[in-house]
Design brief:
By secondary structure, the protein is mostly beta strands. The strands form two sheets. Strands 2, 4, 5, 6, 9, 10 and 11 form a seven-stranded mixed sheet that branches. It has a four-stranded antiparallel sheet with strand order 1-3-8-7, with no helix packed on it.
Length: about 120
Amino acid sequence: QVQLVESGGGLVQAGDSLRLSCAASGRTISSYGMGWFRQAPGKERECVAAISWSGGVTYYADSVKGRFTISRDNAKNTVYLQMNSLKPEDTAVFYCAATSRSTITTMTSLYDYWGQGTQITVSS
């Protein structure tokens, strides 16, 4: 079992930056692909970024490309999401997830473990 705990959320103004952290416990995540998802009220959960187990392959949703950066530190069993130039439309609950698949994926159904989520609210 892998337990994931997100931190770093909060209330910010448009244009601000935040860094989310996802700390894993129970098992090393060095062999897991990792993803950051978000879910806004009334909307489906969507993948905003994903990273392969080695960190060598990444994915970004078009809506965050150039503003968000996903990274991982396998020695610390932690994944990060650096978010710059935040917009009101980024407001959502952000979730960290782990997949045992060998390739990164954006499909929520293919992720095995999920964190509890952290709220990001961006005011205009």
